[in-house]
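Researcher: Final request for today, and then I'll write up notes for the group meeting. The sequence and the SMILES for zinc ion follow.
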Amino acid sequence: MGVQALYALQNGFIGFERSGLFYGQLSGEPVQIPVTCYLIRASDATILFDTGFSPRAIPGLLRTDPLARFGDEDLLVHRLDALGLEPGSVDLVVLSHLHYDHAGGAALFPTSELIVQQDEYAYAHYPAACCASFYYRKNFDLPGYRWRLLDGDAELAPGITALRSDGHTPGHQSLLVELPQTGPVILAGDCCYWQESIDRETPPGVVWDPTRAMHSIKRLKTIARLTGGRIFPSHDPAFWATAVKSPDAYR
Ligand SMILES: [Zn+2]
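Model: Predicted protein-zinc ion complex:
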């Protein structure tokens, strides 16, 4: 019972400056980074963590970003289809935060429950000028959709726990997934962009509060250590190259 499998879903690649990846770095050198989502099969629920880009955004990305790479198979609906799923089969959609490369596909899930921290939901509607370019209101202003707004950590299903990890944004969350064979995995979301962010406890360059972001990295590391678990970063090309990708799964 409980969690059965964790599928890593690729949602294409984009270019991003190193200064945006690592707090305190000034290099404008662009790096190609993956955009990732995860599908979890549990005995009593099917759960998606993050939704990648809106399909509407893809043509513009491919036109303006020389490092953008996006195949037809990278569309979230096609990734789900390859697992025999359609959006209506997903019970819970957990959004780490509402930036456009994580919440872009939320509109695909009118019958699922969309789960986000209430501070993130509130901030995304009225972001400060510094952070506004990462929030596209169309992605999350979805009348009639079923939102569940969390205030901190919450067990969502047996073996699946939302962990508050703010700093990158005001209401960021990560997801602890307790797998039967692999053991605990923490899907960090943008709390940890790269393995280097974890090792050096470096907040993202795109950050709302760098001190809180650093403490959230430390918190995930502590939970990983105490549970014997692993942290999966969100946008690390080296991690992604070695990750077990869907249709294969962590079990
Ligand atoms: Zn983000």
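Model: The chain has one domain: 3-242. The chain has a mean pLDDT of 97.
Researcher: Thanks, that's everything.
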